[in-house]
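Recall from the previous lesson that a structure prediction takes nothing but the amino acid sequence as input. Here we apply that procedure to Potassium-transporting ATPase KdpC subunit from Paenibacillus aquistagni. The sequence below is the only information supplied.
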Amino acid sequence: MKIITITLRVSIVFMLLCGVLYNLAVTGVSQAVMPFQANGSLIKNEQGELVGSKLIGQAFTDPGYFHGRISSIEYNGAGSGSPNYAPSNPDMLSRVKESMEQWKAENPQVPVEEVPMDLLANSGSGLDPHISPESARVQIPRIEKETGIAASELSHMIERHTEGREFGVLGEPRVNVLELNLELQQARAQS
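The prediction returns the following tokens.
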């Protein structure tokens, strides 16, 4: 009976320590040190309305906005992930051909050969909020035509939203599509 009492006491102590106190400590530290990230890196527009997260991509289909990467899960975070197709997989080839045809229809002024691969294929998570700076630049002719905003101003927007490599060496330069489109939306409202 004594061993059962000791076991129960130790279990309760560790449940409180690991299940409650540890979580409160981690939450408190993260809220104090980096509250923006701890709360989901949420982005609001000029009116203060929540429009999304800096960490999760969205589907932009309006031709007057920059488009992000293709998502095989329709940007549904509940089902994060994507098929791990090889480049020779028939389903992958079919999806890329569909993307190429869609590109030709929406962007007739830019040949498909100039389109970076990240606009034609999905990311590993299916939720990637970034595209390469090159992927943003090839969309300028369409957006200039749709909005009347000069190509030079669109290029400056892309430059302002281009993030470098992490710690100067990890990853590739990238552009957050949601943040870029928010600035584009402001410019459209002013013109």
